[in-house]
Amino acid sequence: MTHRQLSLPGMETAPLKITKAETFGAVQRTFLAIITQQGQATADAIREWLDIPAAGLPAIGRAIADLHRQQRIELVEFGVSKRSPAHGRALRIWRLAQRESPAN
Q1: In the chain, what is the greatest distance between 2 CA atoms, to the nearest angstrom?
Q2: Does a structural domain hold residue 5?
Q3: How many angstroms separate the Cα of 53 from the Cα of each of 17, 21, 60?
Q4: SS3 of residue 20 by DSSP
Q5: How does DSSP assign 26-76, residue by residue?
Q6: What are 42-67's pLDDT values in tens digits?
Q7: Those residues with Cβ within 8 angstroms of residue 81's Cβ, 6 or more apart along the chain or in another chain
Q8: What pTM does this model have?
Q9: What does 92-103 look like in DSSP terms, one character per residue?
Q10: What is the CATH number of the domain that holds 83?
Q11: Model confidence over 3-16: pLDDT tens digits?
Q12: CB neighbour burial string for 77-99, b if at least 16 within 10 angstroms, e if fewer
């Protein structure tokens, strides 16, 4: 996954520098945009688009978990990180939640 393949509104250059206070919402908006365009994503994808200060890094997991609690995304499978500092670490692979159609 490379950021050159994505076109996220308002984020023509990556990574976008954000503050700790902006992290939660920015992670959720960016993660949903990436999944919408690519079909699936991991938390690693966020780091390609957002320059998150160290103090804000725990918000990545919380923001993604909140999207899952809201049933906006669902777990596809587990994969491994390809980022150098986290190489081989287990990651969840997410997609948009598949909502069932109501019975007619």
Answers
A1: 50
A2: no
A3: 8, 10, 11
A4: coil
A5: HHHHHHHHHHHHHS-B-HHHHHHHEE--GGGTHHHHHHHHHHHHTTSEEEE
A6: 999 998 888 888 888 888 999 999 99
A7: 42, 44, 87, 88, 89, 90, 91
A8: 0.76
A9: EEEEE--PPPPP
A10: 1.10.10.10
A11: 334 556 555 556 77
A12: eeeebeeeeeeeeebbebbeeee
